[in-house]
Amino acid sequence: MKLGIWLIAYSPYFLVLVAAIYGLKRWRRNSQAVTPTPPAENN
Predict the structure, then answer these.
(1) CB atoms within 10 A of CB 2
(2) According to the model, what pLDDT value does residue 33 have?
(3) Can you tell me whether residue 38 is helix, strand or coil?
(4) Which of 19, 25, 35, 42 has the smallest count of CB within 10 Å of its CB?
(5) What angle do CA 19, 21, 24 make, to 5 degrees?
């Protein structure tokens, strides 16, 4: 019973964490592939 309450209480945090890691990896891979040239703000 405690495990069920724990999962219900903390599963949204794990979902957000997994989504953030997945989105960050995907965004970094896409940004590197799409923009091989450095951004203008680094000049």
Answers:
(1) 6
(2) 61
(3) coil
(4) 42
(5) 105
Q: What is the pLDDT of residue 42?
A: 58
Residue 21 backbone dihedrals phi, psi, to 5 degrees = -65, -45
Domain-located, residue 41: no
Q: Is residue 19 part of a domain?
A: yes
Q: What type of residue is 32?
A: Q
Q: Is residue 29's pLDDT more than 60?
A: yes
CA 3 – CA 11 distance, rounded (Å): 11
Q: Which token pair is 3?
A: 């495990």
**What domain range is 11 assigned to?**
1-30
